[in-house]
């Protein structure tokens, strides 16, 4: 069980650690990268699904000078429903796909997201997986096994947790660690945090750690301040 006595990190500290960790990841070759953008579409996630729909353009805008990005939308909802779309290369296409989805009650299916990412990257390299969710109702060991396999394939998973549910936090941290990715919590009332995180992962997926450093130099003051703290 996670230690509930540990103090929660601020958004600034979380992004600090995230940017620092991404900078240490293996280099990614230039050119169009493939990214799996996975979201929990169960009932509790409806408000944040709408928020992510508005912010998804950051995934493309941040990488337009790096060769672009091909993004596949994945989601689960309802009773054992899991969907993965085609890879798209334009924000309008991704927005249309997201707008066609409505959230439905159900249990989490994070394992299916990770297993799908394994299959995709064995077919053609996936540079990064982004997952946005708020809870976990699955076997931790099975999730860690799939995350470890993605780590062996050099496909990092970036786990973005809405809220601070303790069990989900502990699981998401393990998944990100084993895959070579990163974990960051966010508050849906602070959309700028999620916006910055999506842009940072997109830049990494498209151009690697060096591209992320270059991106931060011409990005917002918030990102610049965070990057200046990285040695």
Automatic annotation (TrEMBL):
<dbReference type="InterPro" id="IPR036465">
    <property type="entry name" value="vWFA_dom_sf"/>
</dbReference>
<protein>
    <recommendedName>
        <fullName>VWFA domain-containing protein</fullName>
    </recommendedName>
</protein>
């Amino acid at each position: 069980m996670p230690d509930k006595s540990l103090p929660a990190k601020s958004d600034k500290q979380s992004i600090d650690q995230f940017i620092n960790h991404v900078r240490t990841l293996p280099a990614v070759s230039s050119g169009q990268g493939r990214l799996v953008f996975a979201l929990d579409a169960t009932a509790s996630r409806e408000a944040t699904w709408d928020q992510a729909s508005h912010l998804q353009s950051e995934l493309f805008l941040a990488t337009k000078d790096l060769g672009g990005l091909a993004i596949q939308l994945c989601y689960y909802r309802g009773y054992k429903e899991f969907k993965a779309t085609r890879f798209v290369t334009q924000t309008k296409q991704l927005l249309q796909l997201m707008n066609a989805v409505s959230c439905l009650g159900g249990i989490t299916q994070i394992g299916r997201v990770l297993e799908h990412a394994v299959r995709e990257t064995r077919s053609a390299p996936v540079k990064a997986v982004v997952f946005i969710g708020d809870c976990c109702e699955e076997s931790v060991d099975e999730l860690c096994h799939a995350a470890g396999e993605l780590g062996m394939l050099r496909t990092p998973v970036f786990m973005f947790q809405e809220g601070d549910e303790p069990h989900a936090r502990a699981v998401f941290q393990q998944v990100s660690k084993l895959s070579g990715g990163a974990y960051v919590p966010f508050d849906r009332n602070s959309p700028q945090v999620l916006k910055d995180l999506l842009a940072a992962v997109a830049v990494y997926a498209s151009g690697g750690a060096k591209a992320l450093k270059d991106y931060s130099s011409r990005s917002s003051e918030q990102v610049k301040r965070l990057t200046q703290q990285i040695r």
